[in-house]
């Protein structure tokens, strides 16, 4: 995983965990990688992963079974979508609008490219 400078690493890892939940790689009630395993996989300090897990636990996306590990909470996908949607609408969308305005990209071109993107994603999902 390549980390960006514009966001705390623990939040970027939370995004990685959330994406795995949304893609159903980590289904509801499934055990997720341990703090140590995820730290090794992502090449980060275990304390950073622990901070990520605490953040996601506070968001009710994951929960801890003492002595067993962390698991995906029921309804986690909806909580992740809600959180990411709000974040996108408040942070990313204004930057996106500024960029398309500066580059004078019209909405019709965006619509066409978005339709192409969706078709390509459907093709990937089927393969």
Automatic annotation (TrEMBL):
Residues 7-75 form the HTH gntR-type domain. This is GntR family transcriptional regulator. Pfam families: GntR. Keywords: DNA-binding, Transcription, Transcription regulation. InterPro entries: Tscrpt_reg_HTH_GntR, WH-like_DNA-bd_sf, WH_DNA-bd_sf. PROSITE patterns: HTH_GNTR.
